Amino acid sequence: MKIAIIGSGLAGATAAAGLAPRHDVTVFEKSRGTAGRMCTRRRQSAEGGEYAFDHGAQYFTIRGEKFARALAPLKDQGIVQRWDAPMVDMAATGATAPRQTEAYVACPGMTALAKSFLDGITVRHEVEIAAIRRDQQGWRLADKSGHDKGCFDRVITAIPAAQTMAIMPDDFAPKPRLGAVKMLACFTLMLGYDKPIDLPYGGAFVEGSPLGFIAVNSSKPGRKSGFSLVVQANNSWAEPRVEHDPDEINTIMRDELARLTGIDAAAAQLSSFHRWRYAATETPLGEAFCSDDAAGLYAIGDWCLKGRVEAAFDSATALLDHLHARD
Ligand SMILES: Cc1cc2nc3c(=O)[nH]c(=O)nc-3n(C[C@H](O)[C@H](O)[C@H](O)COP(=O)(O)OP(=O)(O)OC[C@H]3O[C@@H](n4cnc5c(N)ncnc54)[C@H](O)[C@@H]3O)c2cc1C
Fold first, then answer.
1. pTM of the model
2. Can you tell me which atom of ligand 1 is nearest the CA of 61?
3. What residue numbers bound the domain in which 302 lies?
């Protein structure tokens, strides 16, 4: 069977890995890179310093049995490792208290997880699917310019809920339910320093601030580049400001970082900023996946269950179980 999967984040990558042994699978990804919100950005400063930032997901948990089983060989290969730097809760005053967190990361960057699942599978990068139309042979995909991207027996979208609604045809039975899903925005500030800053933590969960999480990205295992910080906005603070001037948001986040920690963003050798329109899930769908078996159309993603990496995997795995039982 010819199957198209739209989106190469962890949900799409998990579905692709599960279907590829028995089907002809093609993954379409609008970005240049793989892994969606688990991606890693690598940059060189004007001075030649090399920096890497996991600018989406910072870490993941491994709670479910299936996720643990899928990751076991990757742990053996060192692709999944424990991030055991100290974690803290940080109050709005900047005061910190230790926090117990069992955090895992992919190595050498978060991207490595989806990449390893997609090993040997056809991924067509820089193809943004804009339409899924029925024709005599099945579902015909088209990109933003209307160019034909092929015809498939089944289509699985693995993209945020609002984007799923935009491209799924109206005869996709679960479509009306997707409107109830609410996702929140985020902003990410990335800072690379030529000299390490001495901090007593690898990650800080911030309360009562425009900031939500401060990560010493270079404290994660397997990172070989320079000292790097990833500063995430608080999702509830970011959401109403998603269309604000990015320079204004960047300045607020830098000032807040200085107020909380004393870290001077202006001293960074490299600085970068990213806006996420759909980052976290406030209201999930409450069903592990969406299916229209009669049409051969399916939708998966973290937003079905919870805005976490493990939920993206669980959503895809639940769909795989459903399809394996049918086929
Ligand atoms: C800033 C931030 C911090 C986070 N922190 C954490 C954390 O610490 N721990 C945790 O567990 N989770 C965290 N998350 C959430 C986690 O990243 C997600 O739950 C998970 O990565 C979602 O995977 P997914 O496959 O469902 O979706 P995505 O990763 O969003 O994948 C969707 C993919 O589809 C592509 N795409 C979209 N539309 C199209 C189209 N029309 N055509 C082709 N391709 C398309 C996108 O480019 C993307 O690659 C964070 C997310 C963000 C943004």
1. 0.97
2. 11
3. 1-34+118-180+285-327
